[in-house]
Amino acid sequence: MRLTTTRAISQAFFLSLFLFLLVAAGAGWMGGYPVSLFLQLDPLLATATALAARTVYAGMILALLVLVPTFLLGRFFCGWVCPMGTLHHLFSRLFRPKGMKERIASNAYRPFFAVKYYLLAVVLVLSLFGVTQAGLLDPISFLTRGLSTSIFPAIGTSTGGHGLAARVFQSGWLPGALLVAALLLNAAVPRFYCRALCPLGAFLGAAARLGLFHVRRSESKCIHCRQCVAPCPGASDPHERLRRSECMACLSCRAVCPTEAITFGALPPEAEVRSAPDVSRRRILQAALVAAVGLPILRASLRTDRLPPSGLIRPPGSEPEGAFLAKCVKCGACMKACPTNVIQPALAEAGLEGLWTPVMVNRIGYCEYNCTQCGRVCPTGAIRAFSLAEKLGQPPHEHPIRIGTAFVDRSRCLPWGMNTPCIVCEEVCPVSPKAIYIERTEVVDSSGRRLTVQRPVVDPARCIGCGLCEHHCPVHDLRAIRVSSVGESRSRNNLLLLPEQGAQKKGQP
Amino acid sequence: MTDVPRPERPVPESGCSRREFLRRVGLAGMAAVGVTALGFGLHNRRAGVEAKALRLPDYGVPAAGDRPKIVAMRGDRVEEMLRACLDRLGGVERFIQRGDEVVLKPNVGFAQPPSVGATTNPAVVGAMARICLAAGAVTVWVVDNPINDPERCMKLSGIRAAAEEAGARVFLPRPSAFRDVEVPGNTVLKKWSFLHTPFHRATKVIGLPAAKHHSLAGATLGMKNWYGLLGGPRNQLHQDIHICVADLASMVRPTLTVLDATRVLFQNGPTGGSASDVREERTLALSVDPVALDSYGASLLGREPEEIGYIVEARRRGLGTTDLKAAGFEMLGGARVGGMG
Q1: pLDDT in tens, B88-116
Q2: Which residues in chain B have their CB less than 8 angstroms from residue A371's CB?
Q3: Residue A409 at interface with chain B, using a CB cutoff of 8 Å
Q4: Are residues A113 and A235 in contact, defined by beta-carbon separation less than 8 angstroms?
Q5: 3-state SS, residue A196
Q6: Which of B279, B274, B292, B283 is nearest to B328 (CA)?
């Protein structure tokens, strides 16, 4: 079998595997699938979160499986494995010009392809200061987010999906629109995203500098026909001195060369190739400086870790806000995995830094009492893997994981504000004993009739902030019982009760 | 080429050729017929009149004079207990005939494991499905529109597994499955969005409620179980819960109701969440009288029927009796396992 055929099979396999795992990440049948495999294989996400959080979380160690072979083979990940790369490959084929001359021209190297290296510099410097923005443009994160919060829900809605398939995401159109735009850019320049924007490509391109194997061209055999440029996805100039940092090791050049001048070999002389990316040291320093100077300005606005906003409710098992922002790569895997759709991409709730990080919106869903999926899929430990016993506070754990606390809005609540029976919130409260208890009060209604109403009262020591009460409150627009973040287990300053007080009350029947 | 060339057909100066005439008339005619058909097809003659709501048929079976209307039994072998109770009520063939399409409505309200008693015991669902299929039912649907996510509820409650193992089919609610269904009589609900799809061909309907504590309604038993078939903003019904549950009892007239009191969620209902909220009662009760069944069920929760508004209201409407003696209540196998406490 020709090597290029093997490569095409590899690309198809990994794209299919990626899609399968992403679909498997939804629904109740997630089973034992490693649904975040591709995110864990991503060395950029691993490096960025390791710089920001000073730790390589659990499965992220798998990123070595990509990074280490890159020192051997160069950017093979881009050409053989990356599902985003494969999608761009397909779209660039769709828009491919007809003539050989035009194809060769479309794959010429352009100086602006160096932009990705500057973006990488910015992203890594930000990570050094504990701000992880790698996920904004990282291809695996970008694709996971676009598919999870936009494309899959669109398919679900338009095919009349119901139950688990019917998903809505607030401002979910945005990640999908950006994904479509990125794919359509292939019409202007083939693999535009991979060549000019992809920070993972830049990361691997920088690593490929050390690559032991790469494409080499025999000057004596070469007839300078330039046919090798026509299929080149990386615009790596295989017809002259190869740009090693751009080459995706796809070996198409080798396949089309009429004189077999191109081979894939070990350790050719350095003079044959251009090893380093086409960037100036000065520019890289400038980019780093922009990040280092820009960050304090960015942070001059109100920080969500200092003064927690009431509406910033993070999924159970989330790290404290500072560590959370250092670890979250905004991939949206938790949003895909959540069975109730309660996890939503933040737009402004978490500040500029927290764009697309997960927040709970209880009008849309609620945290299912017996569910631990978000923690299981999070690749970076922003939401750490937590057990059901830990979530529910069963032995040996002393407390349940609190997401926030519910508050009755007494002017909107039917029994409190309008002497009308209701207590749906008490009914659906999943905690035992219930965190919402009943206060029976005799009242006089507008016609002078005496009646007894049952009024809901929240016991903050029992409430876990799951949001079921808010979700089912019949006051449909602005709910009469609402969860806010105060009391969340993950925070030391967003406290409501003294810890001992909570512990004592829990022991009561 | 000896033919004399045919002279060109004369074309009238102001007209068209015959061929063109036929083509144009044909096209215009087809368009006219098409739009007319479309117009009448879409025509709503009764401008301003709401579409007529559906009404559910009475799924009940004719009374059997000498038989009790309600029986109960204690034990651990669910399927044997069901069969024994059915025999006493007149045999399974009184309720299920060959060719029946049966809807089973368990309480699958919450995504909780069966041990916390928030949902109907899956063994009861499985056994009832098996009994129906063995009696000749062609299809047995297991249906509910739970409070938590339907898929998760069916899975965690164990009801999907039990139903499918027995050969029944689980119906998950979807928007297109709901129809406005009329509630007969002088009612609060009038008509309400109802999970209608599995009912449109059903010939028999069997309720499989669980016995649970409920702060607002006092208890959730057989009649309140039909709440789980409603769509729309149903959490508003809590504003007049007793009348609304009585309305539900007027709306759905089942073939039979089986109260699952194998485990009774006696406090912290209807969600439960802890083993300490559950009492092993090991009891099943079967009844053709929904009011009698709920009256009996109330006693298992330590309540008097007179305390529970919807039971009183349903009796007032003539939907059944709260007098268990009059309903011929029998505790089967009483000699062996002792009387009911």
Answers
A1: 999 999 999 999 999 999 999 999 999 99
A2: 111, 152
A3: no
A4: yes
A5: helix
A6: B292
